[in-house]
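Box 3.1 A note on notation
Throughout this textbook, protein chains are presented in two layers. The first layer is the amino acid sequence; the second is a token string describing backbone geometry. Keep the layers aligned when reading.
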Amino acid sequence: MATLIPPADLESFATYLKSSDRILALVGAGLSASSGLPTFRGAGGLWRSHEATSLATPEAFEENPGLVWQFYSYRRHMALQAKPNKAHFALAELARKKKNFITLSQNVDGLSQRAGHPSSKLHLLHGNLFDVRCTSFYCQYSEKDNFTDPIVPALDIPKEGPQPNPSVTDKTGEEATTALYDAMRNNAPPRAEPRELDISDDRVELPHLGVEDLPRCPKCKTGLLRPGIIWFGEMLNEKTMSAVEGFVDESKTIDLILVIGTGAKVYPAAGYVDRARSKGARVAVINMDRNDRPSGGLMTKDWFFEGDAGVIIPEILKPVIGDV
């Protein structure tokens, strides 16, 4: 797919990238857009009839853990159906080429990890859909990269029921009638794998799940497991924040910050753009929306690459990483 990057911008960025040593990438949902994932971003992002943000709280899990697990199991399933795009692979390769490069990701979809991004250079601000931990106060059990789908049988995505398989030759209606009754009795002849129902649509019925149906801790045997996501109202991961703070603070200079698929308007992520700039960094924004830019704006020597990150990132990083 061709890009519409102005040649002068592409050339000036390539020259600067080659000479840059310390680079920070701040990435958001736009990185995974071309992988086809729903983002549920911001107010008004609905899953069924629920605001997605209302399901992302400890209080929601305490009140209705079954519904919250259905939401996150759906997201796990969708993420596993998706594949990393070329931007994920390009950033992973840049991490291998540039010693002093790290990525701070606001995404929870696991696509960067599946693209082979070195774990020591990938810091997850909001956690990971595929990490789980025990909710029992006295249990410290946690597990990383649990890709079991569904994580328990009760969370399997429902499929459409038996469908009649009408004849294309019978004109009397007899075979059609037989096919209908066979379908109703589950005796329909085998046909393609049943289609999964879209449970993000509230017209699709979902069963009510009790705690006995949900993932349980294999260590203490009593506590419920929960998704390894940083929910609203919870503290950010101390180890993650310490690593990123250390990268920013340990040197007097940062050469470049890449802002990819995010407006970088929400703290703490937004603060890193200003802090990198205070250490001399130039800013390169890659976004579909030209109005979606860091709160501090852009300077004359910064770059804004408008379009799909999955197309633009491999192109602008090519002088350092080659083809992906």
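The mean pLDDT is 87. The radius of gyration is 24 Å.
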